[in-house]
Amino acid sequence: ALISLRQLLDHAAEHDYGVPAFNVNNLEQTRAIMEAADATDSPVIMQASAGARKYAGAPFLRALMEAAMTEFPHVPVVVHQDHGTSPAVCQRSIQLGFSSVMMDGSLGEDGKTPMDFDYNVSVTRQAVGMAHACGVSVEGELGCLGSLETGEAGEEDGIGAVGKLSHDQLLTDPEEAAEFVKATGVDALAIACGTSHGAYKFSRPPTGDILAIDRIKEIHARIPNTHLVMHGSSSVPQDWLAVINEFGGEIPETYGVPVEQIQEGIAHGVRKVNIDTDLRLASTGAVRRFLAENPAEFDPRKFLAKTTTAMRDICVARYEAFNTAGKA
Ligand code: G3H
Ligand code: 13P
Ligand code: NA
Ligand code: ZN
After folding, report:
1. Which of 33, 146, 201, 307 has the fewest Cβ atoms within 10 Å of its own Cβ atom?
2. What are phi and psi of 13, to 5 degrees?
3. Where are the transmembrane segments (predicted)?
4. Does the annotation place 104 within a ligand binding site?
C-alpha cells in the first residue's frame, strides 16, 4: 500500500529505526527490493531519479512501482522522487502519483553553485506548498555532499557540486538547518555530514570517525521533528568489487560508508538512508561472473535473475542492519 514519507518516518522516529531508500530503474531492482522487504517484514522507500525517468520512461517507471504494490499489497511503500531540480519536476512526479518528492535546491539555480540559501528556501517552499496540498511529503537538502577525506563531491553521477569543497561547505550548519526548516516546512532534510555520491567516497579503509556524527547530533537536537536523510550511503561492498575485478572489471581501490557508521547516524536522528551504488555494484558483479562462468549462455533472464538475487541479499542486509526488519 502507498504511504507518504512523513507517515513512514514518523513511525521510524517513534520506534528508533532507519529506512534504506533504494533507487529503482528496472524490473530487477524493483523486485529485489520488494522480495527483501517481504522476507524481512520491512516497509519500503523506492526512489526514482531524473536518470531513472529518462532510462525507463515515466509511464514504465510508474507502472513498475504500481506492480510492486499489486504483487506485495501488505508491504507499505513510499514512492519517492530523488533529487528533483525544480518545483516543476516535483509537480510532474506528484501528478504521476509519487507520495514523496525531494526538492534539491542545494546546488543553486545553475545546478552547480552551492550555498545559495535564499534560492534554496524559495524553491523548496514552493515545492512544499504544492506537495502538502496533495498529501505528498517533501525532502529538502541543505549543505554540500562531499567526502571529508577527499573534499570531492563525487560528481560522476552529475548530482554533486563541481570542484573541491571546503570543510565548512561539507557540513550542514545546525542554525541554518533550523532556519531552513522553519522557512520551508519540509518533512525531511538531507544533510551534509561526510558522505558523497557514487563508488569513490574514500581512498583508504575508513576509520571509525569518517562521518561527522557530532554534527548529526547537533542538527538533530536543533530540529528534532524533521527527519534527517543521509545521501551517499552506499558501503561499497569489497566482496562485490573483488568479483567485478576477478571477471574482467577494472575498478580501482575504493571504500564506502561502513554500515556501523550509518547505524550511529540512525541512533542520532537519521531516518532515510539513500543507497544506489551498492545495488549497481552487486548487479554488475553478478552479470560479469555469470557470463564468464557460462560463456555459451545467451538467455538474458539467466543473468538478470542473478542480479536480482545479488541485489536482494544487500537489501535484506540493510533492512536488518537499520532495524527496519519487522516494522512493516
Ligand atoms: O543520487 C543519485 C542516484 O545515485 C541516482 O543516480 O541519476 O544516475 O539515476 P542517477
Ligand atoms: P550512493 O551513491 O552512495 O549509493 O548514494 C545514493 C544516493 O544518495 C541517491 O540519492
Ligand atoms: Na531523495
Ligand atoms: Zn542523493
Report:
1. 307
2. -65, -40
3. none
4. yes
215 lines ligand 2 (CB under 6 A): no
Question: Which bound ligand lies closest to the C-alpha atom of 197?
Answer: 2
Q: Is residue 21 part of a domain?
A: yes
Q: How large is the ipTM?
A: 0.97
Which residues constitute the domain of residue 171? 5-321
Residue 148 lies in a domain: yes
Residues with CB under 6 A from ligand 1: 23, 49, 51-52, 82-83, 157, 159, 197, 276
Q: Which amino acid is at 41?
A: D
State the Cα–Cα distance between residues 166 and 321, nearest whole angstrom: 32
Q: Which string of DSSP letters, residue by residue, matches 54-97?
A: HHH-HHHHHHHHHHHHHH-TTS-EEEEEEEE-SHHHHHHHHHHT
Amino acid 159: pLDDT: 56
- pLDDT tens digit string along 53-83? 999 999 999 999 999 999 999 999 999 999 9
Q: Is 327 inside any structural domain?
A: no
Evaluate whether residue 326 is within a structural domain: no
User: Is a pLDDT exceeding 90 seen at residue 201?
Assistant: yes
Does the annotation mark 82 as catalytic? yes
Per-residue model confidence as pLDDT tens digits over 165-180:
777 788 999 999 999 9
Q: CATH number for the domain including 251? A: 3.20.20.70
Which residue type does 244 have?
A: I
Prediction pTM value:
0.96
Which listed residue (10, 38, 82, 313) is catalytic?
82
Whether residue 130 contacts residue 90, with contact meaning beta carbons closer than 8 Å, is answered with yes
Residue 7 near ligand 2, beta carbon < 6 Å: no
Cβ of 106 closer than 6 Å to ligand 2, yes or no, is no
Query: Helix, strand, coil: what percent of the chain each, to 5?
Result: 45, 15, 40
Does residue 196 contact residue 154 with C-beta atoms inside 8 Å? yes
